[in-house]
Amino acid sequence: MTSASRKKYRMGKLGRKNTLIAYSFLAPNFIGFAIFTLIPVILSVVMSFTEWKGGALSTMQWVGGDNYASIFSSAKVSGKMAELGFFGGLDYFFNKVDLGIALKNTVFYTVVTVPLSLVCAVTLALVLNKAVKGAVAFRAIFFFPYVASMVAICVCWNFMLMKNGPVNQLLMAFGSTFNKSWTADSTMAMWAIVLVSVWRNMGYYMVIYLAALQGIPRELYEAATVDGANRWKQFLHVTLPQLRPTTFFASIMLIIGCFKIYDTVAIMTNGGPGRATKMLVIYIYQEAFTNFHYGVASAIAMVLLLVVLLVTVIQFSMEDRYANN
Amino acid sequence: MTKVKTRNTGFSFGRLVIYILLIALSIFTLIPFVWMISASLKLDREVFTFPMKWIPETFHWENYSTIWTKVPMLTYFKNTAIIALSVTLIQTLTSSFAAYAFAKLTFKGRDVLFLCYIGTIAVPWQAYMLPQFILMRSMGLYDRLEAIMVLQAFSAFGVFLMRQFYQNIPSDLCEAARIDGLSEYGIWARIMLPLSTAAIATLVIFTFVGTWNDYMGPMIYLTREENKTIQVGLRRFIQENSSDYHLIMAASVVSLVPVSVVFLALQRYFIEGIATSGLKG
Hints:
Helix content of chain B: over 70%
Number of domains of chain A: 2
Shape of chain A: globular
Largest interface: A-B, 91 and 97 residues
CATH class of the largest domain in chain A: Mainly Alpha
Helix content of chain A: over 70%
Radius of gyration of chain B: 24 Å
CATH class of the largest domain in chain B: Mainly Alpha
Strand content of chain B: under 5%
Distance between the termini of chain B: 46 Å
CATH architecture of the largest domain in chain B: Orthogonal Bundle
CATH architecture of the largest domain in chain A: Orthogonal Bundle
Number of domains of chain B: 2
Order of helices and strands of chain A: HEEHHHHHHHHHHHHHH
Oligomer: heterodimer
């Protein structure tokens, strides 16, 4: 008994010492992390309920849900709903209200970019997974756009997609009559951004798919061959199902990345023409750093945060399901 | 047997299709870079001709000397290098230090603290960049290179990546070292650090390239000409000389050179790093 209690006492002392040592390991990172990440994250929630145009802190005012009411333009939208019915109100929200337009654009961009990037990435990975000569060189080529800086890339694509640029010249050779700069056209501007995004994403996700392909046990293919499955059937019934967890992971990463898009849009179109490519982060940036509506900008940031958290929660719950299967 | 083998690796319709596909996709991937280089060697009025010429009639190498007189590229490069190197150094050191505590030490509040880190990985930077900006400005960091350093250097991602790696190192190793009288700091320096070179290489590469290419951070924080990084500086040059297509492309090519060199030298680590960690999208 006595030795046990003495041991406990000594453990306690040792534990305290260990804790101190552990904190000394953590401190250099945690202090920076707390000041520059943790506190701002908490503040951003608080700020979305206040009104502040910079200046002295004492001028910051608690306004409750006013910022949210203003970005959702709730008075006008509910007015339209009363007047034109529920869908009339929604129509007004997604076509006239800034937040609605930004949400619509971001979702459209995401819905188009994610599958296209995945298909290109899988194709590249499948082709490279065959024993081809120069596989390492090809892999490096496809990956390169991912490390190249966005400013240089986006400007170059902007030029290539100009009125007299090489892309339009090529399309004209195939009989297209489109004769405008892509980024000046309200429909094509969005596709210009999708094009650049897919072009840049595909090499990165190709690498992830290549790793997954190499992890598929050979026995599965051998068994399929014994069962008389041809190449196409093997692809359909062995490769694709085996790639499912990777596809799921890649989709989640891509969706989150798409919702955070800023650089490409800022450099190529800056949200234009009109509001045709206005995305959530562009909207946050404009409200915060052009109009100095700090509270409103924080409220939009919360909308972005909610969407990303929702996607992450779905990821975690689905991952559990994969783990259980 | 050998005959069959040579037929498989030799010429066949399937392989031809694969190579055609590969080459077509490579062209699609590389064409912007080729066009960029081609345009950078032309005169501005030659850039958009019909039909377009891929190889300039005469190579105007002087475009590359002109940009150095028109844009303070050297200052931009210097600033970007200072930021990228310091961020990489601070990030790698402090992350691996903190990760050791999370992976190999037991202490009060470990799980709660780690949850804080994990929780913020899911929070997009754009959601809290504004309060962060206000906080930094009140600390007098606005328009200073240090702002971008502290902004990037303490990311939760680094700690997470290193912790995952450290957890795979057997705890028995640390235990044996403790019995041999090595302090925790000694264990970190002499056992964990040498064993985690692969993880460190991944973290170093991604931090360096990420910081080098960062656009939004420097754009918000750095306004004085002498503080601008290459991305923001290039953007300003583009806005002010929007019709000097040839010079813009020359400056773009130059801005890509450092990252291309790093990539070509370390591409194996890039690709292995993504394949093993699969993170940072």
